[in-house]
């Protein structure tokens, strides 16, 4: 007996697939850069989201749930606890290959502070558009601590952690100088078969 108005499995599947394709289409059109500032991903707070880790770029936003190298300072400070040794990471990018826009990133992590894990990082975006030059520097201190760790394993495979970033942004340009502070928090839960993160 078929109920009146009920959709069969095939029609429900097609409706679901159409809704997913529609949602993805909206997502792609909403992300299209409309101006130069959109390309540089300048957020409302003035902070830029330029590449700081090649691995994180390849993983997209999924790196927030992994965050197990020097990129954790930028993407999710709670992931600093997964690093097992001191780590230095750097990246340099000549945007567009013209020598006009350059971005640098330097990060150092010390996971053995005795009271959690800590890291410092510096990111610079500079423009040499003659006769004008401007720099945007972002200094960051990151700290992470365990919320929960499985005491039966010593390999840090299952845990929950939290972390904070304290950021200082300084921008210099021919029109004036500006600076500001920011604080953000991150969380990471890692299980045997899944990992979840938020920043």
Oligomer: single chain
Main sheet: strands, sense, barrel: 7 strands, antiparallel
- What is the arithmetic mean of pLDDT? 79
- For the biggest β-sheet, the strand order reads 1-2-3-4-5-6-7
Any idea how many domains?
2
Instruction: Tell me the structural class.
Output: alpha+beta
The total of beta strands comes to: 7
**Strand coverage percent:** 35-45%
From the alpha carbons, calculate the radius of gyration and give it in angstroms: 21 Å
Q: Report the order of strands and helices.
A: HHHHEEEEEEE
Indicate the low-confidence ranges by residue numbers. 32-39
Q: Percentage of helical residues?
A: 10-25%
Distance between the termini: 50 Å
Helix run count: 4
3D shape: flat
Description:
By secondary structure, the protein is α+β, with helices and mostly antiparallel strands. It has 2 domains: 32 residues; 163 residues, no CATH class. The chain has 4 helices and 7 strands. It has a 7-stranded antiparallel sheet with strand order 1-2-3-4-5-6-7, with no helix packed on it. A hairpin with a 2-residue loop joins β3 and β4. It is flat, with a radius of gyration of 21 Å. The termini are far apart. About 4% of the residues have low confidence. This is PorV/PorQ family protein.
């Amino acid at each position: 007996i078929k109920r009146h108005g009920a959709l069969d499995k095939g029609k429900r599947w097609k409706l679901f697939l159409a809704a997913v394709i529609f949602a993805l289409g909206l997502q792609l059109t909403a992300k299209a850069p409309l101006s130069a500032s959109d390309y540089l991903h300048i957020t409302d707070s003035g902070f830029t989201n330029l590449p700081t880790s090649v691995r994180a770029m390849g993983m997209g936003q999924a790196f927030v749930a992994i965050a197990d190298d020097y990129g954790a300072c930028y993407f999710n400070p709670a992931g600093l606890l997964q690093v097992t040794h001191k780590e230095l990471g750097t990246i340099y990018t000549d945007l567009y290959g013209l020598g006009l826009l350059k971005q640098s990133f330097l990060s150092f992590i010390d996971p053995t502070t005795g009271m959690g894990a800590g890291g410092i990082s510096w990111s610079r975006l500079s423009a040499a558009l003659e006769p004008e030059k401007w720099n945007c520097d972002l200094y960051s201190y990151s700290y992470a601590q365990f919320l929960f760790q499985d005491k039966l394993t010593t390999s840090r495979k299952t845990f929950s952690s939290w972390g904070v970033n304290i950021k200082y942004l300084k921008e210099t340009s021919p029109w004036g100088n500006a600076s500001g502070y920011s604080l953000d928090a991150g969380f990471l839960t890692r299980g045997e078969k899944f990992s979840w993160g938020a920043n």
